Amino acid sequence: MGNEKRELRILIINTVTFMKGGMSTVIMNYFENLDKDRIHMDFVVNKEIEAGYRTKMERKGSEVYLLERNTEPVKYFFSLLAIIKSGNYDIVHVHGNSCTMAIELFAAMLCGCKRRVAHSHSSGCNHIKAHKLLRPVFEMCCTERLACSKEAGKWLFQGREYTIVENAMNLEKYCFDMKKRIDIRQQMGIEENEILIGYVGIFVNQKNQKFTVDVLESLRKENAKYKLVLVGEGELRGEIEEYVRQKNLENVSLFYGETDDVTGIMSAMDIFLFPSKLEGLGIVMVEAQLTGLPCIASKQVPEATKITDYCQYLELSAPIETWCDAVRKAEVEGTNRLKVRISEEGKKRFDIKEQVGKLEGIYWGQDCTNYQNE
User: Fold this and answer.
1) If we measure between CA atoms, which residue out of 334, 340, 281 comes closest to residue 309?
2) Which of 234, 226, 227 is closest to 208 using CA atoms?
């Protein structure tokens, strides 16, 4: 498609709930920075959307369609057909984690949309049977392949070429703030000599918050100075709260909920723990490092997230004590969080100002670097 056309019409489909964090944050980062004079976007949202996101979309002239993907699949599919037909879209761009994106891509194909983009955001999924069953349809319907990392691309596209689109952000938003650290720790009742372990993410199985609680329990057997803050919402929050109560850690574990001030809460933390079972990238790891936090992640988190020297990756199968030792080591070594050096490569890869042009180029049909399974 050439640049002679004044405006591209694109339908963005998010196959998970459109709440703060992860895939949804990445979609919004690009949406807010794309050239709105040349690209128009509408959105299909699964089940629910964060109110602030919806307001931003609608203020920019976007239509937002709220559908129920998981419990009403037939109604969902026919609603998609109606939306795509009436929207006359040049591109349908589907964000997801598996070949179940075949549902959206097939609807787009039936409606005559010639460019059907699958965007992989994970290195695995929780519904492997449906993933395998729908792969032939996925392969038939997908015309372009994007991924947030090599791990996510290899997982979903299995030998076919794909283009990496970085999970970019506004880097200037993320920096250590001493005043916020003091204020938020006072609000939470964290003493100066206490070590606050932090986690940010949606409460779902793949994020593995129970493991974080287990690490806290083990650390406190030796020293009571450790506390935990879990930031986010999600379907498993109640289950994790009950898990904390069972371990008698409710007085030293804080459930912070969602926040617009990620920099503030990260500034209040001392160590960031991220023991995910699956990650396409794990953009919150980058955010944590930008605020100067030492980070300890599972090896299921791609090492492409490493942008400072204060970041390490451990096996989930390693003994809990190995994770505790890493926490203690990070605590002892410490960092001057105002002087943590971000790699130049990391700045370029994750800066939305650097990366938004790449996605615009893809939309306008320009060639980009492709990757393929070896």
Assistant:
1) 340
2) 234
Residue 126: pLDDT band with limits 50, 70, 90: confident
Helix (H) or strand (E) holding 137: helix 128-141
The span from the CA of 53 to the CA of 66, in Å, is 13
Q: Which residues of 322-361 are buried (b: 16+ CB within 10 A; e: fewer)?
A: ebbebbbebbeeebebeebebeeebeebbbbeebbebbbe
Classify residue 341 by its DSSP letter.
P
Cβ atoms 31, 63 nearer than 8 A:
no
Report domain extents, the chain.
Answer: 8-169+352-363, 171-348
pLDDT digits (tens, 9 = 90+) for 57-96: 999 999 999 999 989 999 999 999 999 999 999 999 999 9
C-alpha span between 250 and 188 (Å, rounded): 13
Exposed (0-12), middle (13-18) or buried (19+): which is 230, by Cβ within 10 Å? buried
Take residue 103 and report the two structure tokens written for it.
């549902």
In this structure, how many other beta carbons lie within 10 angstroms of the beta carbon of residue 249?
16
Predicted TM-score (pTM) of the model is 0.87
Do 48 and 17 form a contact (C-beta atoms < 8 A)? yes
Cα 122 to its chain centre, rounded Å, is 9
Q: Are 356 and 26 in contact (CB under 8 A)?
A: no
Q: Do domains 8-169+352-363 and 171-348 have the same CATH topology?
A: yes
Between CA 336 and CA 292 the distance in angstroms is: 8
User: From the centroid of its chain, how far is CA 366?
Assistant: 26
Q: How far apart, in whole angstroms, are the C-alpha atoms of residue 343 and residue 346? A: 5
Please list, in sequence order, all residues whose beta carbon lies within 8 angstroms of the beta carbon of residue 329, skipping any fewer than 6 positions away: none
Say if CB 232 and CB 264 are below 8 A apart: no
Distance CA 111, CA 100 (A): 18
**Considering the domain 8-169+352-363 in this protein, what is its CATH number?**
3.40.50.2000
The residues, any chain, with a CB within 8 Å of residue 336's CB and separated by 6 or more, are 292
Please report where in the chains the tokens 């050239």 appear, as a residue.
35
CATH of 171-348, one of 1.10.760.10, 3.40.50.2000, 3.20.20.80, 3.30.9.10: 3.40.50.2000
